[in-house]
């Protein structure tokens, strides 16, 4: 099987409401959808959702890098040769993990369809039957976040990821308000997205949270400040998770050596796709570290790819892949049964793409042959 053509779509996915994190507000999610055509008539879909603040890539740069560099590189290659494809991409361009993830996911989708198997069967087989889904609360006033949480409990959710990271005292008030509103038995995870900057501010905040039964605090300090994560972990009883600070195996090795986190957040857009994510999960497993598969708020395509990784690995114990639930229109049909996700047994990603919706949401596109 050989790749004959790669279609590249620059897409704006409409959100029900703005998504607000410590470093920005999104009124829609800009993402790149790719489709590979093969000489056997099998197609595969992938997605790149770049983020200048996290992956160092922009929407525009990703589209043109795929068009002019990475897509031409893969024409004529066998999409089932995952290691070779990554080696080709890595020898040609340094970094750009979201762009590489798009092609990696599309190749896995095509390979699964070729073999008649879901992707999770290609990377270790299914381990988990289902995962609970966590609702993400974007940054708002404390009472607004509390009311949203209460509404989501009525819809069946029993865990929340709170986006904070603007000012320590206000963030503490946000978390206190949600805890008071939902009661003591609902799981709350706090994602700071580097917003507390350093260990001093983070420890001030975490001392105020010690009696609120927080599952974990995610990435309170700047991404490259592994030493501050070490200090925080040594001085608090609240578990800490690294997200932006763990992009690939080099960072994970340092995290393991310094015992800098209780848990790491693997994102396909940060590490370059399914194959690199699987390798990170194995690396963490050997060190006895639990993992989460997280989201950059991808469509059904990128979210399904993350779920396939999560369902196949024993030490992946949580997921946060709720992008499709935030979109008023999505290009795929990934199914949620709130508060759980249960993957189907269809080959490849198991996602059907609505071509009409894809075309309507496309801002510009191209084909590489």
From TrEMBL:
Membrane spanning stretches: none
Domain Mandelate racemase/muconate lactonizing enzyme C-terminal per the UniProt entry, residue ranges: 142-239
Cofactors that this protein relies on: Mg(2+)
Keywords: Isomerase, Magnesium, Metal-binding
Annotated Gene3D superfamilies: Enolase-like C-terminal domain, Enolase-like, N-terminal domain
Similarity annotation: Belongs to the mandelate racemase/muconate lactonizing enzyme family.
Signal sequence bounds: none
Record carries keyword Membrane: no
InterPro entries: Dipeptide_epimerase, Enolase-like_C_sf, Enolase-like_N, Enolase_C-like, Mandelate_racemase_C, Mandelate_racemase_N_dom
Pfam families, per the entry: MR_MLE_C, MR_MLE_N
Cofactor note: Binds 1 Mg(2+) ion per subunit.
Catalytic activity, EC: 5.1.1.-
The protein's name: Dipeptide epimerase
């Amino acid at each position: 099987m050989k790749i004959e053509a790669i279609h590249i779509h620059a897409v704006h996915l409409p959100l029900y409401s703005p998504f607000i994190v410590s470093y920005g507000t999104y009124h829609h999610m800009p993402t790149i959808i790719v489709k590979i055509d093969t000489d056997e008539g099998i197609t595969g879909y992938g997605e790149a959702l770049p983020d200048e603040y996290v992956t160092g890539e922009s929407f525009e740069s990703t589209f043109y890098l795929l068009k002019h560099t990475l897509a031409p590189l893969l024409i004529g290659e066998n999409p089932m040769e995952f290691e070779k494809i990554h080696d080709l991409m890595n020898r040609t361009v340094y970094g750009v993990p979201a762009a590489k993830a798009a092609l990696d996911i599309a190749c896995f989708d095509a390979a699964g369809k070729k073999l008649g198997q879901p992707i999770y069967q290609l990377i270790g087989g299914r381990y988990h039957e289902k995962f609970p889904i966590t609702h993400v609360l974007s940054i708002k006033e404390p009472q607004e976040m509390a009311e949203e949480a209460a509404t989501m409990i009525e819809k069946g959710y029993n865990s929340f990821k709170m986006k904070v990271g603007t000012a320590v005292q206000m963030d503490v008030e946000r978390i206190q308000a949600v805890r008071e509103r939902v009661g003591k038995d609902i799981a709350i995870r706090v994602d700071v997205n580097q917003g507390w900057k350093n260990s001093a501010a983070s420890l001030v905040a975490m001392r105020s949270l010690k009696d609120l039964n927080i599952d974990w605090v995610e990435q309170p300090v700047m991404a490259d400040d592994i030493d501050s994560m070490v200090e925080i972990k040594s001085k608090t009883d609240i578990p800490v998770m690294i997200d932006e600070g763990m992009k690939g195996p080099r960072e994970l090795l340092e995290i393991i050596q310094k015992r800098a986190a209780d848990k790491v957040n693997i994102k396909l857009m940060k590490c370059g796709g399914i194959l690199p994510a699987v390798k990170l999960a194995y690396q963490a497993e050997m060190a006895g570290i639990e993992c989460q598969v997280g989201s950059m708020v991808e469509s059904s395509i990128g979210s399904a790819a993350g779920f396939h990784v999560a369902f196949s690995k024993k030490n992946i114990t949580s997921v946060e892949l709720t992008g499709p639930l935030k979109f008023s229109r999505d290009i795929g049909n990934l199914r949620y049964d709130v508060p759980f996700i249960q993957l189907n047994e269809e080959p490849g990603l198991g996602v059907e793409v609505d071509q009409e919706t894809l075309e309507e949401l496309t801002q510009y596109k191209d084909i590489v042959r």
